[in-house]
Amino acid sequence: MSDVDGGIRVDLDGPVCTITLCRPEVLNAQTPATWAALREVGEKLDPAVRVVVVRGEGRSFSAGLDRSVFAGTAPGGAPSFVEMAQLPPEECAALIATYQEAFTWLRRPEIVSVAAVQGHAIGAGFQLALGCDLRIVADDAQFSMAETSLGLVPDLAGTKPLVDAVGTARALEICLTGRRVPADEAERIGLATLVVGRDVLDDAVADLVAALIAPPVEAVRETKALVIGAGGRSHAAQQAAEREAQTRRLRTLAGV
What we know:
Order of helices and strands: EEEHEHHHEEHEEHHEHEHHH
Number of strands: 10
Shape: globular
Helix content: 40-55%
Distance between the termini: 39 Å
Number of domains: 2
CATH architecture of the largest domain: Alpha-Beta Complex
Largest sheet: 7 strands, mixed
Strand content: 15-25%
Radius of gyration: 19 Å
Structural class: alpha/beta
CATH topology of the largest domain: 2-enoyl-CoA Hydratase, Chain A, domain 1
């Protein structure tokens, strides 16, 4: 087990890496220091890791952005929103790109990422859950994309996976209204992979992780790449990708 600055804890157990947001006193609110720590985990992740679980300590997954960022008092001396606005546009965009990297590595083809969500998943918390491939959700969970209500936009790489999960019209409605999406609706519209009782969330995640690491690792990675890439391919291109992937698998299994 290792502690990482930024309010996260990282536990490595063989092929499973568990990242825990551990600022329960502020409902695991995130700061740029959180994103720097998450980005560092992705950069240093052991190649043997197959599954990454992201969870929050206490009663909520993450209540979103720590309000200290607005005031310029966030840990680590990160610029406030006012200071970001005063940067040249290209510098501001480049800074945001570094924040996005904390979220996007969770979609890498060599791992499967799972968000274990209870309580609030708001703003940056919602986008962190969306950054994961799968979401196991407690029945008390509530999702909200609150950025637009604050005059901002969701910019932590969450809009694409949200549209992929629920479609354009529903994603637009969720983002523009900032309303709370409860667990049962999240499951119905495709945000949640599975909804379980809060008291069995850990068990449900453990069962899923065990199932994910059971198949041969290369078969899992090839299959994930096929599924993730399907949305951007024609039927013919997808079929060609399947043929190529299966040829690689057959040759590997046969020792060719």
